């Protein structure tokens, strides 16, 4: 009988040890689960931030393209206007020189 009690006591002690280990494992598993949940939330936030960054950077890129095109058109208009002004000035000066040259030749030739 004593031997049975001793075996039962030993088995009870082993069961308690296994119980402690199981409780520790369950606690660790719960902690891992919480950490994984936190990690998932952080990765979702990071993914959303990345999507927002892509949208914002695309908007900025499009706006900069529009500004670049506008600047080019303004530059082309300025260069074109300057070229037109230079051509007009040249035409007027050549016409004026021909007119004065014709007048000088007509006044200087004897009748």
TrEMBL record:
<comment type="similarity">
    <text>Belongs to the synaptobrevin family.</text>
</comment>
<dbReference type="GO" id="GO:0016192">
    <property type="term" value="P:vesicle-mediated transport"/>
</dbReference>
<dbReference type="GO" id="GO:0016020">
    <property type="term" value="C:membrane"/>
</dbReference>
<feature type="domain" description="V-SNARE coiled-coil homology">
    <location>
        <begin position="7"/>
        <end position="67"/>
    </location>
</feature>
<keyword id="KW-0175">Coiled coil</keyword>
<dbReference type="InterPro" id="IPR042855">
    <property type="entry name" value="V_SNARE_CC"/>
</dbReference>
<dbReference type="GO" id="GO:0012505">
    <property type="term" value="C:endomembrane system"/>
</dbReference>
<dbReference type="InterPro" id="IPR001388">
    <property type="entry name" value="Synaptobrevin-like"/>
</dbReference>
<dbReference type="InterPro" id="IPR042166">
    <property type="entry name" value="Vamp5"/>
</dbReference>
<protein>
    <recommendedName>
        <fullName>V-SNARE coiled-coil homology domain-containing protein</fullName>
    </recommendedName>
</protein>
<keyword id="KW-0472">Membrane</keyword>
<feature type="transmembrane region" description="Helical">
    <location>
        <begin position="73"/>
        <end position="96"/>
    </location>
</feature>
<dbReference type="Pfam" id="PF00957">
    <property type="entry name" value="Synaptobrevin"/>
</dbReference>
<keyword id="KW-0812">Transmembrane</keyword>
<keyword id="KW-1133">Transmembrane helix</keyword>
